[in-house]
Amino acid sequence: MTTSAAAPTSSWAAFAAADPELAAGGRRLLEAHGHGSGLLATVREDLPPRISPVSVGIVDGRLLVFVIVGSAKDHDLLDDGRYALHAHQDPAKPDEFQVRGRAVELADPASREVAAAGWFFGVDDSYRLFELRVEHVLLGERPDADAWPPRYRSWRAPSAAGATTGG
């Protein structure tokens, strides 16, 4: 487990309450293919970063992901927790969305049941549920593929000294 001090994180709901327009743009890009999906980057101190395709969902104000128990993603999220999630890009309008923060396992049966009920594929005990807590969000928008540079907007979870980090 990494020993560095963790940056403040927030739930998706707290982020969305603080910047509804940015959250709506991010959700639009994450769900552009009919369900939530993206590329999840994970790290561990002793290994290079990994990038994996994942299905994600926003359920009860939380950004969630199910991963296969024992997989490299599972080990990385349990051992270190740091992640970056990038939405897939549409070549015709290549807007960008990324969120980074720390993953927290949700082991309680009630959270798992609520998430699994509306998930995009069948989940069973071979999947572990994580909440992707939000530290920093970046949205880059372009009117078309030829427009450069993108218009970037970002949001960062407030520090505990300055404000609450929310749910």
Structural features:
alpha+beta, Pnp Oxidase, Chain A, 4 helices, 7 strands
Topology:
Elements: H1 12-18, H2 20-30, E1 37-44, E2 47-59, E3 62-68, H3 72-79, E4 82-86, E5 96-105, H4 109-117, E6 127-141, E7 151-156
Order of helices and strands: HHEEEHEEHEE
Extract low-pLDDT stretches: 161-167
Q: In which order are the strands of the major sheet placed?
A: 1-2-3-6-5-4
Give a count of the beta strands, DSSP E runs of length 2 or more.
Answer: 7
Q: CATH homologous superfamily - what is it?
A: Electron Transport, Fmn-binding Protein, Chain A
User: What percent of residues are in strands?
Assistant: 35-45%
How many distinct folded domains? 1
- Helix coverage percent of residues? 10-25%
CATH class designation: Mainly Beta
User: How confident is the prediction overall: mean pLDDT?
Assistant: 91
Which topology does CATH recognise?
Pnp Oxidase, Chain A
Describe this structure in words.
It is globular and about 45 Å long. The chain has 4 helices and 7 strands, in the order H-H-E-E-E-H-E-E-H-E-E. Helix content is 21%, strand content 38%. It is α+β, with helices and mostly antiparallel strands. A 6-stranded antiparallel barrel has the order 1-2-3-6-5-4, surrounded by 4 helices. The chain has one domain (12-156): Electron Transport, Fmn-binding Protein, Chain A (Pnp Oxidase, Chain A, Roll). Helix 1 (12-18) packs across helix 2. Mean pLDDT is 91; it is low at 161-167. The chain has helices spanning 12-18, 20-30, 72-79, 109-117, and strands at residues 37-44, 47-59, 62-68, 82-86, 96-105, 127-141, 151-156.
